[in-house]
Sequence to fold (169 residues):
Amino acid sequence: MIRQCTESDIPEIYEIINDSAQAYRGVIPEDRWHDPYMSREKLSLEIQDGILFWGEEHDSRLIGVMGIQDKGEVTLIRHAYVRTKIRNQGVGTRLLRHLEILTNNPILIGTWADAVWAISFYRRNGYQLVTREEKNRLLKKYWNIPERQVETSVVLADQKWISRYSNNI
Fold:
């Protein structure tokens, strides 16, 4: 069952993010890795900044989470994580499809440039990489991330965005 997460889910969201993010260890730039990957304070700030988390639940336990953030003319998919032991069983795709129906806006997704598995996942689900120049512009406009993260990330866009701004990819 997919449902919107509540404040009582924050400890489980924190656990899922930091379990799943172990895949980034040794892959993303060393200066971007933190342990834990996302602190409780950072998670709280992300929620305060308007990210709504949705989760897939199985046997009364969250097994994956994905955030959605309305930025006016676009919607961002943020912090998509599935428990390590449950990966590659369709949880991420089900969450992504659910979040896609929650908005009529074009959708943008940012991820680490070296996270080839994440890029592959989004591409299999119909998203396309934007150009480096457009990526830099979009990350600075819609995300609140350090310059170093902008340098080492990519942005993928859905078909709505591509149709509207296709000269920029």
